[in-house]
Amino acid sequence: MEVIILSDVYAEGWIRGAGAYRLATELRKQGYSTQVMDFCSRLTEQEARKVFDKFITSETKLIGVSNTFMYNDGHKIFAQEWMLDLLQEYKDKYSLKFAIGGNRGGMGHYDRAAQKLFDILVTGFADKAIINIAEACRKNDLSLLKAKKYNKQLLVDCKHEYIYDDFQNSQIIWEEQDCIFPGEALPIETARGCIFRCSFCFFPGNGKRGSNDYMKNKEILREELIRNYELFGTTVYDIMDDLLNDSPEKCQFVYDVFTSLPFKVKYASYARADLLISQPQTLPLLEESGCIGMQ
């Protein structure tokens, strides 16, 4: 595989993260053979070596780490004490480049132990940047990237460079190599961002008030749902949006798409209870569209 993306699952519900598979979708569309490896903070060293030896070869140019659902304890990236050393071993063997990004930690998350391993730090949504990063690694020339120096690493800030502006038409295109289990709940985005700008929130897509451009095109979303059903029988989802019920309009949007399907869907998502009280008309919309859980 030319590109490997290491990820993990959300432990409370064993849900895969959407980010790694969004990037894999874009890479595959551009002809990069790509494999996502989940459960990376849960592997034994023997298991890790077995799976790395299968996919990491002389063809591999880039290994990315999606830290959104990785081990969350202080400055550690992986739960295993030996994982960074093991990855360094493969980096030295194949002259690989390593990148890390995701919705957790910020720059302060990368401690000195990781500075030797990672060549590129990525902040923000990397749907577009990942292609440029892969191309630079394929050509073995990171100077091609629009990036700043951060300590001894390169920082690709997707809020200012490689801005992705086509979310409305984006999808996660799952493939057989992603090993979808029967009955598995898949992650999906119906929107990216939130109309609120809460002080505690570090997600990059907040403050979308008065705009519907952060929601996916209805037909694109419906196509995505139907394809997953036809290929994998998928009827259960975890909607990965920042906030499912940030507006009545968005609740109506979800209702319109999900109730138009020729099969029943169940889903869970992030929501605010106070909005269900202040906008009581939204609760039946969510319930009738298939919502079975809100966090």
Structure in words:
This protein is an alpha/beta fold and 295 residues long. The protein is 30% helix and 17% strand. The strands form three sheets. The chain has a seven-stranded mixed β-sheet with strand order 4-1-5-6-7-9-8, covered by helices on one side. Strands 10-11-12-13 form a four-stranded parallel β-sheet. Helix 4 links the parallel strand 6 and strand 7. Helix 6 packs across helix 7 and helix 7 runs parallel beside helix 9. It starts with a strand and ends with a strand. The mean pLDDT is 89.
Secondary structure blueprint with pairings:
Elements: E1 3-6, E2 9-10, E3 15-16, H1 18-29, E4 34-37, H2 45-55, E5 62-66, H3 83-94, E6 97-101, H4 112-115, E7 120-123, H5 129-138, E8 148-150, E9 153-157, E10 186-188, H6 218-232, E11 236-239, H7 248-258, E12 266-269, H8 273-278, H9 282-289, E13 291-294
Determine the fraction of residues in helical runs and give it as a percent range.
25-40%
The largest pleated sheet is described as: 7 strands, mixed
User: Segments where pLDDT lies below 50 for 5+ residues?
Assistant: none
Distance separating the two termini: 36 Å
Indicate the structural class.
alpha/beta
